[in-house]
Amino acid sequence: MKGLRLYLAPFAPDDSGAAAVLYPLGGLVVICDAGGCAGNICGFDEPRWGQGNKHSAVFSAGLRDMDAIMGRDDKLLAKMQLALKELKASFAAIIGTPVPAVIGTDFRALSRMGKKRLGLPTVTIPTTGTHLYDEGVSATYLALLKTFATPHDSQAASGQSAAQSTPASQAQNHPTSSSATSKQRRILGVWGTTPLELADLDTTLLRQVLATEDWDEIRLYGMDSDLAAYQQAAHNTQNLVYSPAGLAAAQWLNQQYGTPCEIRCPLTPAEQTILQAVPDTAKNILIIHQQYKANACRTWLKERLPHAKITCATWFMQDKNQCAPQDIHFKEEDDFQQHAKEHHYDIILGDPAFHRAIPKDNEVTFIDLPHFAVSGDEFIDTKQDTLSQQS
Amino acid sequence: MSEKPFYMTTAELAAQFPDNVPQEFQLDAHLIWNSPAALDFNSPGAQGFGVKRAGLSIPGSIMLLISPGCCGRNTAALRGPGHYGEHFAFYELQDNDIVTGRHLRRIPEAVEAFVASRKEKPSVVMLCLTCVDALLGTDMERICRQAEKKCGLPVRPCYMYALTRDGSHPPMVAVREAIYSLLEPKAKDPQACNLLGYFAPIAPKSELPSLLQGWGVRRIRQLATCESYDAYQQMATANFNLVLDSEARDAARQMEKRLQIPSIELRRTYQPDRIAHQYRALAQILGITSKRHIPWMPAIMQDIHAFREQHGELHFAIGSRLNANPFDLALAFVRGGLTVEEIFANPRRDDAYYIRQLGQLSPATRIYTNLSPTMVNYEAGDSHVTFALGEDACWYHPDVPGIGWHDEIQPFGFTAIHALLDAMRQKLGSAQRPVQQLLHAFHFIRPVRNKTAATIADH
């Protein structure tokens, strides 16, 4: 039945994705909600929260029924103004939730009003809580780039600060400046890496894999990159799209500054060890994850099992250009169950939460391939065991 | 930019409370800082009981959460091993559902599918709704009736409307009404009472049950200890309800109106004289004339004295994420001769008495609010705190000994004071005072033979 989930809890929503990108940037990040969404984001979807970095503060707008009924945007800005009297912030961000979605908040107007009233660049992300995290990640990357990205040495040329210059003027004045940068310093920008994608906050393994490619600097957007990494995104020599959530940002940088981009999800040794658990006898395999990771797993497995039929499935964004004909996109729990039942897979690789939804009469071997956006920390012990055992 | 956390001393606040409360203490006047210290406020179900867990308190109940995905996200945590796996299902709203309300037509069918999918037949289905339906004005009572017809089980709405948190009927009040609304009228048992307010049982060592039994109330029921739906229905036989948390007041009123069960309210306090006073008042209402019904007051006073002798030098920080009213606890400590340096809490109108008293007895105690954005600037190094009480206070003071005092089992009465003192002693590494020493006082309690608790109506 459409919308009904009897076995799978909801996946990370778009507002969590937006918050994941904004979290490490040191802005005044406000979830435009009554409190519950901010609690969900911080208490569940943001594993970095509460780890002592007070600069990464997240606030709830604390909306009440009359605020929503009366559409008191001015009150929200007054609250933000009050907070800025006591806090240092380089920018402000407002993340949408179901409440502003229902009352039809004009986020573009809110952004303009915010910039004027707060005296800070104000990024608004019109997420609704009904979509999935990758859409929030994608929208937030773009909003940040459009607000902050400046071409190489533009400040020296124009005398403008990052916050003052507009993307349009930047694009016009310095359309291809990234090529000059790349000669000086080789920087890899990796897009689509948030804690919601990576089951582990420790990015050492991923960095180790990428370090073999001889980069001077690796920027993981959404993990540990700061606001300067967005301001200087045009300096990246190359952009790597780790998950479909990062595709729009990399394409925008390519269009604006000519920065080449590559779609690739490098597998860490720990992930490769998970794949080694797939037996040689496997003939029909289903991999469920974000599309690019699923594809990377398929490529890795194909070398070992060239005759196996491997299907990649995702519940999240699907880039048609990266799909094999047999690949599938799930939207409803019923679809997933029906598919699993009809296709008689030997092996299913996916987040442990999916195991629960597989019909009991299916004789399938399930191998855990954790995805934080699916089960959060529900199986955190299992995930840590899986990853630590593998690494 | 002051870059200092906002606080007021109790003397300053007492001078202007409750008529002139600074905006930092007014929840609707500022952004809410979503720190771990404030998690219980923003996401009450993240730890302890929020609407979702509370709504599943009826034995054998299941819950369908009808909301956008984001509202049900943290429910994944409740579905883990040993939790509520089989009890939850979700109906995820899409943009179109919100605009057209078309999902409402499908809910009865979804409830039917949910019930059919469970291994055991549930006793009741709770439909949990969120802010979206609050704004849309969904008539969920009607949908529940339709769903009842479809699945043949009681179906009740459970309102998780965070938008109404500061209103007169906040979600945690509404959910208490919902969970007692299924009780059917039954003949009264003069020897039975219910304890209302908590979703977990009161501490087994609490003197309250034995006190009541001593007064002839033989059957004391709590929702959390009902093992079956039939046992839950027996709550309707109670002669009276004891309301232990003010959030259950509306539910008790509803029960009085519908089931003719009157109620008496007892507050959880850590001040021994007030506990004794409450018990005396309760005894009077129940028609108990014995002079010996509060026997353990001297023992607990001794216990407090011993703690002060041993640890009187401590400076306490008291938070609000604990099983106590932080202002009441602070006042109890101050009256017991201990020093309270800081309180992390938002004062409510009901706290005026405590604030006035603290203003006189401990005027320099600082009151911080967990929720103000200025708390980003809080530095533990600036204070003299040497012991933290409450999950939030422990978070602010990670380098001093502290206890969360936040277990689900609810401490109540004199034994709550004793247990708290012992937990602190244990943390400080000092010898525990044997429980027996205090509990021997309980031996004074004797069942009042051939006497039943009079019906409240008689008084």
CATH architecture of the domain at 44-180 in chain B: 3-Layer(aba) Sandwich
What would you say the CATH architecture of the largest domain in chain A is?
3-Layer(aba) Sandwich
Q: Describe the strand arrangement of the main beta sheet of chain B, using strand numbers.
A: 1-13-12-11-14-15
Q: Looking at CATH, which topology of the domain at 44-180 in chain B would you report?
A: Rossmann fold
Provide the residue-averaged pLDDT of chain B.
89
Interface with most residues: A-B, 71 and 73 residues
Describe this structure in words.
The complex is a heterodimer of chains A (391) and B (459). Chain A has 391 residues and is α/β, with parallel strands linked by helices. Chain A has helices at residues 14-22, 36-45, 65-70, 73-84, 98-103, 107-118, 133-148, 154-158, 167-173, 178-184, 204-211, 227-231, 247-257, 269-276, 291-304, 333-343, 352-357, 372-375, 380-390, and strands at residues 4-5, 28-31, 58-60, 92-95, 122-125, 187-191, 217-220, 238-241, 261-263, 284-288, 309-314, 328-329, 347-350, 365-368. Chain A has three domains: 14-145, Nitrogenase molybdenum iron protein domain (Rossmann fold, 3-Layer(aba) Sandwich), CATH 3.40.50; 149-263, Nitrogenase molybdenum iron protein domain (Rossmann fold), CATH 3.40.50; 269-390, Nitrogenase molybdenum iron protein domain (Rossmann fold, 3-Layer(aba) Sandwich), CATH 3.40.50.1980. In chain A, the strands form three sheets. Chain A has a five-stranded parallel β-sheet with strand order 12-11-10-13-14. In chain A, helix 1 (14-22) crosses helix 7 (133-148), helix 4 runs parallel beside helix 6 and helix 7 (133-148) runs parallel beside helix 13 (247-257). Chain A is globular and about 65 Å long. In chain A, 56% of the residues are buried. In chain B, strand 14 (387-389), helix 18 and strand 15 (402-403) form a beta-alpha-beta unit. Chain B is 38% helix and 14% strand. Among the domains of chain B are: 44-180, Rossmann fold; 192-290, 3-Layer(aba) Sandwich (Rossmann fold). Chain B contains 20 helices and 15 strands. Classes of the chains: A alpha/beta (391), B alpha/beta (459). Chains A and B meet through strand 1, helix 1, helix 2, strand 3 and helix 3 of A and strand 2, helix 2, helix 4, helix 5 and strand 4 of B.
